[in-house]
UniProtKB/TrEMBL annotation:
GO terms classed as biological process: proteolysis
Cofactor: Zn(2+)
InterPro entries linked: HtpX_protease (IPR050083), Peptidase_M48 (IPR001915)
Listed GO MF terms: metal ion binding; metalloendopeptidase activity
Organism encoding this protein: Allocatelliglobosispora scoriae
Keyword terms, alphabetized: Cell membrane, Hydrolase, Membrane, Metal-binding, Metalloprotease, Protease, Transmembrane, Transmembrane helix, Zinc
Protein name: Zn-dependent protease with chaperone function
Residue intervals of the Peptidase M48 domain: 84-307
Sequence intervals crossing the membrane: 7-35, 47-67
Superkingdom of this protein's organism: Bacteria
PANTHER family given in the database record: PROTEASE HTPX, PROTEASE HTPX HOMOLOG
Length: 615
């Protein structure tokens, strides 16, 4: 019922959208007649033709593309009935209980999600091929009862005709969004379309939320109230664990040029090793802000609604849902091969992967230390022997001072052991006398050749003082740590691993217009700025087509660490003078008419600049 309501509303709203187009066409004709009476005939005709082309062309092209749109299944691994009979038996049984036809294809996907689709024909009147998508992380974490609830919910979209008839609503979205994108943000013709488009999404999303609630009743029917409620709660936990897994383990490795050989298996290992943390996470009350633009009701609201439904009891099946598939581990590797782009990254087993990533991260720390020392002594080619040589020559306070702003030279000298500790640790690893040991329960640990934990702070304290440096050299030799193995790799800072925190269009950099991308590690000056109201489009296009490190290589990149002093002359619009360590000066002037990539872009720029030495 809700599915048919959605289609009816979509057709009515889509018809209204084109009624708006006809009204605008009538207005355009009237405007053309009025302009024709006021100006030269040729000018009036040109204006009229431009309006008609913009209106009819945009609407027609968007409608044509929407009608021709053919959705493609997401990347994943197809599971055939003969390779996973238990899973297929479960799905078919759930489909029978839901009163609907089972899917024709089951596909495992790399997401914390499950979904269904149907490639129906003739606007949903002719049934089509049905697809069921199951996220690998769900198979690694949910019980069989919880998975039944999740799949029952998805199959409920079939029984409610949500998927078959939802194609109409989706094509309506495509037509409206396509029209708005083609007209552009600054064109007055698009104002009415954008307003109506928001109304369309408002109505369509409201019906989509009703469909989700309707599908939840099917989840309760096939799995019971408790399993349905616990499955929804567990999805929040799985999403948090999945995000943590990528942020702590996979993401930093990919940025450093490495990938694990068993990406999905690693997530299963993490979940098994951190059960105590997951228990605490389950105890947290997750309150989610809701919006009229949401396509799903908030999960806490859905849980409360499920528990308020008439009681349905199903015997709990506490087996791991992955047990429904034979050889889940090998399936994970197959999925990784199908969906993960290796590129030039090195694929390693987890122990070697962790050691390589941690060492690469430590090298980045060492490079920042070397670059800071290099700026003091005016030499970028520097290594640990040179640093210890400076300590030996009595310059410890001089090279320590930039690391500890606000401290006196004497105080900084006493803290120099901290950066020296990082350099000696790296030397120990490069010398084969220490390594990072992988752990799922905590961060990687530094161990010696015997597997015992090691710490070089005491040795670093000796090495950071001229009087005790001879003792440190003797100890380094005894341990077999060769200081010559440690030197700067990246003499100039890069944008590797940086995040975008804002952007300003048409900023004057030394009196030349640039679009300014604000990173958490520096500034990218995008050359070739154009119209002031197109800055956001240019910045989004650049970010969407090119990785941040590559953008920094192609354009001028100014790391914050290269800025010696900042003088902020005006905050709105920003006017600042940046003095670099090499003595060069950069004048940065924001214009009144330039775009902001985000509302906080200007504030984030000012905050980043103030983190340097402001004068």
């Amino acid at each position: 019922m809700v599915g048919r309501l959605r289609v009816l509303l979509s057709l009515v709203m889509l018809g209204g959208f084109y009624l708006v187009a006809l009204l605008q066409l009538a207005i355009a004709i009237g405007l053309g007649v009025w302009v024709y009476s006021l100006v030269h005939q040729a000018v009036a005709i040109k204006i009229f033709i431009w309006i008609i082309i913009a209106l009819v062309g945009s609407v027609g092209a968007a409608l044509w593309n929407a009608l021709r749109f053919k959705p493609e299944p997401p990347p994943g691994v197809v599971i055939h009935p003969d390779t996973a009979p238990q899973l297929w038996a479960e799905v078919r049984g759930l489909a029978t209980a839901a009163g609907t036809r089972p899917p024709d294809e089951i596909r495992i996907i790399p997401e914390v999600n499950a979904a269904v689709s149907e490639h129906a024909k003739l606007m949903g009147l002719i049934p089509g091929k049905r697809y069921l998508y199951i996220g690998m992380p769900l198979l690694q974490t949910l019980t069989v009862s919880q998975l039944r609830s999740v799949l029952g919910h998805e199959l409920g979209h079939y029984s409610g005709n949500h998927t078959k008839l939802g194609a109409v609503a989706y094509r309506g979205r495509l037509a409206i969004q396509g029209t708005i994108m083609r007209i552009g943000t600054g064109n007055p013709i698009g104002w009415a379309f954008r307003g109506y488009g928001r109304l369309y999404l408002l109505v369509d999303n409201a019906v989509a939320r009703m469909q989700e609630s309707e599908a939840d009743t099917v989840a309760v029917k096939v799995a019971g109230n408790e399993a349905a409620a616990s499955a929804l709660r567990e999805l929040l936990v799985i999403e948090s664990a999945w995000s943590f897994y990528f942020a702590r383990y996979v993401g930093p490795g990919a940025e450093a040029g490495f990938l694990p050989d068993d990406l999905f298996g690693g997530f299963g290992e993490l979940v098994a090793a951190r059960q105590d943390e997951l228990v605490k996470l389950r105890e947290v009350e997750h309150e989610v802000e809701s919006s009229v633009w949401d396509t799903h009701p908030p999960i806490p609201d859905r849980v409360r609604a499920i528990l308020a439904m008439p009681r349905v009891y199903q015997h709990p099946d506490t087996r791991l849902s992955g047990d429904l598939l034979p050889h889940l581990g090998s399936l994970g590797r197959t999925l990784q091969a199908a969906v993960v782009e290796v590129g030039g990254r090195q694929v390693l087993p987890w122990p070697e992967f962790t050691a390589a990533v941690a060492t690469a991260n430590l090298q980045e720390v060492a490079d920042r230390i070397f670059r800071q020392v290099g700026r003091v002594i005016k030499d970028r080619r520097i290594g640990l022997p040179a640093v210890l040589g400076l300590v030996e020559s009595g310059r410890a306070g001089e090279i320590a001072e930039p690391f500890f702003p606000g401290k006196t030279k004497r105080e900084a000298r006493e803290l120099l052991y901290q950066p020296v500790d990082a350099l000696i640790t790296l030397a120990a690893i490069r010398s084969g006398k220490a390594s990072f040991r992988h752990s799922w329960a905590q961060r990687a640990e530094l161990v010696g050749p015997d597997g015992e934990l090691v710490d070089f702070e005491e040795l670093a304290r000796l090495a950071a003082t001229a009087e005790t440096l001879p003792q440190a050299r003797i100890r380094l030799a005894e341990l077999g740590i060769e200081i010559e193995t440690t030197a700067v790799v990246e003499q100039v800072a890069t944008a590797k691993g940086a995040d975008v925190i804002g952007g300003l269009g048409n900023v004057k950099i030394d009196k030349v217009s640039h679009d300014l991308l604000i990173l958490d590690t520096g500034l990218i000056f995008l050359a070739g700025a154009g119209d002031s109201d197109e800055g956001n489009k240019r910045m989004h296009a650049a970010l969407g087509s090119t990785p941040i490190p590559e953008l920094a290589r192609r354009h001028r990149f100014l790391p914050y660490e290269e800025i010696a002093a900042v003088k902020i002359e005006k905050e709105v619009p920003v006017r600042a003078t940046l003095t670099l360590h090499d003595g060069n000066v950069v004048a940065l002037h924001e214009t009144w008419t330039g775009d902001q990539l985000t509302k906080q872009s200007r504030d984030n720029l000012l905050q980043a600049l103030r983190q340097t030495t402001e004068v």
